[in-house]
Amino acid sequence: MSSSASSPSASALSAPAIVPGDYVFPEHHYLNNGTTVRSWLLTLDHKRIALLYMSVVMVSFLLGGIFAMVIRIELLTPGPTIIEALTYNRMFTLHGVVMIFLFMIPAIPAVFGNFFLPIMIGAKDVAFPRWNLVSFYLYFFGAILAVWGMVNGGTDTGWTFYTPYSTTTAQGVLPVLLGVFVIGFSSILTGLNFIVTIHTLRAPGITWFKLPLFIWAIYGTAIIQVLATPVIGLVALLLCAESAFGFGFFDPARGGDPVLFQHLFWFYSHPAVYIMVLPAMGVISETVAAYSRKNVFGYGMIAASSLGIAFVGFFAWGHHLFTSGQSAFDAGAFAVISMLVGVFTAIKVFNWVGTLYKGAIAFTAPFAYICGFLFFLVFGGMTGVALATVSLDIHWQDTYFVIAHFHFIMVGAVIMGFLAGLHYWFPKMFGRTYHEGWALVSAALIVLGFNATFIPQFLLGNAGMPRRYYEYPERFQALNVASTAGASLLAFGFVIIAIYLGFALFYGPVAGPNPWGSRGYEWMTPSPPPTENFDVTPSYVHPPHDYTDEAVDDPGFAHARTT
Amino acid sequence: MNDLLNNDLLRRMLFLPEQASTFAVSVDRLHYFVITTTMVASSVVGAAAVYFFFRFRRISATQTTPFVHPTVGFEVAVVSVPLAVFLLWFVIGFGDYAKLANPPPDAMDVYVMGKQWMWKFAYPDGPNSVGVLHVPANRPVRLLMTSRDVIHSFFIPAFRLKQDVLPNRYTETWFQATKPGRYQVLCAEYCGTQHSKMWATVIVLAPEAFDAWLKEQQRGLVARADILADPDMVSIQGNLVEQGKRVAMDQGCMRCHSINKAVNDTERHIGPTWVDLYQRPTKLTSGATIIADEAYLTESMMEPNIKIVSGYQPIMPSYQGKLSGPDAAAVVEYIKSLRSDSSELQPVKGPVYEQLRQ
Question: Within a 10 A sphere around the Cβ of A140, how many other Cβ atoms?
């Protein structure tokens, strides 16, 4: 069934040369192996756990997005618009906590990592399937605790929980902190599981330097998850002890130090940025190779830079404290270390662009997201280095410039990576393809809408508008209105995606094992894959994404051929 | 190049506010350089991608491609070029930051206190105010800042200046305003429901106008006792006691005057003890008895041998010209704080400066 005929050159611009009816849906696969609610909720199959994560992650994204729109609508006028100040403060807290802890951190590692890590290394499952399920439920109940706590207690501290505000505010912070604490354990378990899986379950033939780059990225991410997450757990507990029992860790009135909290908080929360970005970079490494039918240029440099980012990311946290009164020497040291992250990122960017060289590029929806990703990462990354240039940060710190910068990285780059991965892997995960035309329309809307939302926010930051402002001087209104208009466009793009992907889930054309003609290892199995991941044990002769003549003719990779 | 970097057009394109301090000018220059490099780099990467896309479009779904490795030269270039650019930014930026971290010694001091949700300002030798900060143009001004409750951040966009204001700790920053005018102060660190309304105004006056204003304010101090009596200013005045103690130590006052109750009881120093001195009826060598109030204490520092306390020798040197007005006032505050009936320093209430008129 893998070698149905299709005319080779009929698809110069749209890669999937699939004619409906070419393929039949596999009879047995992980989706229909058990259809009871119990078979889903107590599954140990990494693919089903990935889908459990995906459903909660998507609901979180929807919630976070609604909060974002409420914030943007409130900011349409300089004065009060639709909600009052306290509600606004709760909104941006909800938006931040939900988007970061509930959506962004698990989005790519827990969904695509869970689904594809074992398949990409030729394993039947992760090393500890039960831990995997426990990790999901920790995430699920932590998420419910955090959201319930914020709605019920009205947490208004912002997602950064800076002391002494967070220990003196009348609004409740305990449940949300406990929720973050519990979610942290989910993250640690997932990270440990992935590290052990990568070390022990690689199929014969997959050496470290034949690992797909997505795996290298997930590996770097898992290291950060395991080493940094305990610190946020510790900080959350200290803060709980302080607000519940009046310990004076951070409150200066009781002999504590509020800046100590900032150090501890960012010791986790800065590396956490790389928990979000590294997997997105991994997705881009996979997709850029697949859509340009080229081996990844500078494979070794990209793999090494993932570990490099994971390493130096631990020592950059002080750049959040340039205006907090730390010494000039500290500021300089943290600035230089932060710039190294920029250098590692630049290595990746140049190598991705280099991958296009002498490739065979197809402009598909995921490729559109790759282009968006490159722009957002370069611009977001370089503004990040600009922020690390200490004197400039004095003006920009805590203004909308910082907001725009980290949304360029965390929304721009991470969501582009997530969407590129979602579109690239959707046929593999569900066995069906989506409507390419609508996919391109929504990709265009999202990239444009994103720019229209956040470029005005860079300018607002330049003009001096601080973040977390419910009301603002009138001179900032025009740019705020522009930003809200862009956000509406962005939201519209997501609605279109939800519609055509929802439709494709049930009625899309059957995809076949390898609709993209990709030579990533995960395409060596049927779509959707069987519960055990492979019908036939694959052999791994060539590195992933090898599109040379002899590799494409290799019979061991029969599925990758479309003729 | 310099003209380009001082370009007002670029400033307007980037929506930057006007440049009203020396720091703003140098930061904006770096800003233009950084943003230009960023634009050029983004464009080069984007143009390369677009070129490759058209040059290497897919012509067949089964097309094969060569296996390409980067050369060592390429690898070295992609590491060293970004690193060099970033370090160049850093060297320029850190130089400016280091300047900001080291206020010039001749800077005029202003105390800033943030509290939910207002800014208060106090001058060591003059008035204080809520929400309005007067400063002279073309003179360095150092801000000594603290907070009464949560963390705030003192932000003047037109000066490109920002410094977090922390409870129970002093932070400092400084600026030199260049243009007389009114500029907005914003709070940049989230501090509660009224965070977005925690604004103040900086009024930059020409130096002569500022001196005149300061004199006017000092004259009107008594009339403005209502503001001075504000208990929220206590912590700043309390700090005056610390300053006074430091000055007294520096000037060697304690070689002759004791500040310790135990010493007071057991031995006699060269000069009268400072403990419980304030408001004490004191017998002089002339036979008269006076109350040791602020005027007497100040006079005794400047012209010590006019009124000698009975039982002591007229040996104290004059501190006329050695102690500035604010320092003398600080020492007086320190003496006032030395009470044997209290284990800790009493907060000082009300005006302390009106006694300084000579």
Answer: 18
